[in-house]
């Protein structure tokens, strides 16, 4: 085990795995909690906010941290699984300090905070000791000059900054998986969360929104102007966008749907017509669809699309024209495992499974679950009475709708010793 470095930067800690003494991962670092005593006194680091299974946030006191190195954090293993609740006297380093505008006393230089370092004091407490600052960009220079200064040489960190930006926190979020970024965003104060969401680009915001609870989704979308909200909805998967729009007032729904691109809006409108928790309401209207004259090489090229989820990439749907949903007659499906055994130049029609039972859009959530379980599938086609393909239901869509709203809290409180975060 390596020795804890004398100085550790907060932004580099985010996302690091946390291990117990037996070497089992128990969570990930999400933030640092500090106690701000005065403008000049170095704040004491009280502990870390850790994310455990189910995105639950808990507090890990620094007294429980035994070692920190470049790739992991070690603890005593004695962790309180109670959900972290920030107190009024506490400040989150990543969530609240980054992007604050500060001034260096000795030089008069002003800039924004992009990182903060902590060190061990003589009393063996961890304290914030250094501040990394970036000046505003000047002329043609892409980025302003950076400085790392002593904590007591900086003014502006102990007060709330009403004009606090989001540049550096956004940079940190862009390096995370959407689910991890959503967890950070969820725990921010409402105004800060809105500022950060506004600073994300449309595609990234769409990815993060899909991972947030419904209340957060609605709250963020309502803070966007209508045109921006429509752009973000277009970047979301149609089923997620339909679920989100359904939570909005009817007049807002219509405004956003009119502002969306007609093709995107049509998919969403179609999904919103189905009864909640049916195959039609859960399905994705844009699975991988090919005609019978496509080759195996064509099919493999389509499923390599990195934007496809593993479940959607597991199966190709072979249909008559038109190839946009609702398609012509569904001829069958081609499983990716089968395609990998076929010559690339052969027709995909030769690998079609035409014996698979199909789902109807009115199938209930229990019927969908039974269907996937019976045939060992991670995705299944949904067809109308004329056997035209309407979309595909995936196992991740099913789980999103089957699990109770508070499943994450239940999972965390029960411990789930067989699951690694």
From TrEMBL:
Keywords: CBS domain. The keyword Methyltransferase does not apply. Gene3D superfamilies: CBS-domain, MgtE N-terminal domain-like. The keyword Plastid does not apply. Residues 352-410 form the CBS domain. One of its GO terms (cellular component) is membrane. Pfam families: CBS, MgtE_N, PRC, SH3_actinomycetes. PANTHER family: MAGNESIUM TRANSPORTER MGTE (PTHR43773:SF1). This is Mg/Co/Ni transporter MgtE. It comes from Nocardioides thalensis. The lineage of its organism: Bacteria, Bacillati, Actinomycetota, Actinomycetes, Propionibacteriales.
């Amino acid at each position: 085990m390596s020795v804890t470095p004398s100085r550790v930067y907060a932004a580099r800690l985010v996302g690091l795995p946390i291990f117990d003494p037996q070497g089992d991962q128990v969570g990930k670092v999400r933030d640092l909690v500090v106690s701000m005593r005065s403008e000049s006194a170095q704040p004491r680091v009280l502990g870390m906010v850790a994310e455990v299974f189910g995105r639950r946030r808990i507090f890990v006191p620094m007294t429980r941290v035994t070692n920190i190195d470049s790739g992991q954090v070690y603890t005593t293993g004695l962790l309180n699984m109670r959900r972290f609740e920030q107190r009024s006297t506490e400040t989150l380093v990543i969530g609240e300090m980054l992007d604050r505008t500060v001034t260096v006393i000795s030089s008069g230089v002003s800039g924004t905070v992009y990182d903060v370092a902590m060190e061990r004091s003589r009393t063996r407490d961890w304290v914030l000791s250094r501040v990394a600052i970036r000046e505003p960009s000047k002329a043609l220079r892409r980025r302003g000059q950076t400085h790392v200064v002593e904590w007591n040489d900086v003014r502006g960190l102990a007060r709330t900054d009403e004009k606090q930006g989001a540049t550096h926190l956004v940079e940190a979020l862009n390096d995370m998986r959407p689910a991890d970024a959503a967890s950070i965003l969820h725990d921010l104060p409402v105004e800060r969360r809105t500022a950060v969401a506004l600073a994300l680009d449309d595609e990234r915001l769409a990815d993060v929104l899909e991972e947030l609870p419904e209340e957060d989704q609605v709250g963020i979308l309502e803070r966007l102007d209508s045109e921006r909200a429509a752009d973000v909805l277009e970047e979301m998967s149609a089923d997620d966008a339909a679920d989100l729009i359904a939570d909005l007032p009817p007049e807002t729904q219509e405004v956003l749907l009119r502002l969306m691109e007609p093709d995107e809006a049509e998919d969403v409108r179609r999904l919103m017509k189905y009864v909640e928790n049916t195959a039609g309401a859960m399905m994705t209207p844009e699975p991988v669809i090919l005609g019978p004259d496509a080759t195996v090489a064509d099919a493999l090229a389509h499923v390599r699309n990195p934007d496809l989820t593993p479940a959607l990439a597991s199966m190709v749907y072979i249909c008559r024209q038109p190839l946009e949903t609702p398609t012509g007659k569904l001829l069958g499906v081609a499983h990716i495992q089968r395609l990998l055994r076929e010559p690339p130049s052969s027709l995909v029609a030769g690998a079609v499974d035409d014996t698979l039972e199909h789902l109807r859009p009115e199938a209930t959530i229990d019927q969908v679950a039974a269907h996937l379980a019976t045939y060992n599938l991670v995705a299944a086609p949904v067809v109308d009475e004329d056997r035209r393909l309407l979309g595909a239901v995936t196992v991740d869509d099913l789980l999103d709708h089957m699990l109770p709203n508070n499943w994450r809290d239940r999972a965390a409180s029960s411990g789930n010793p067989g699951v690694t975060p």
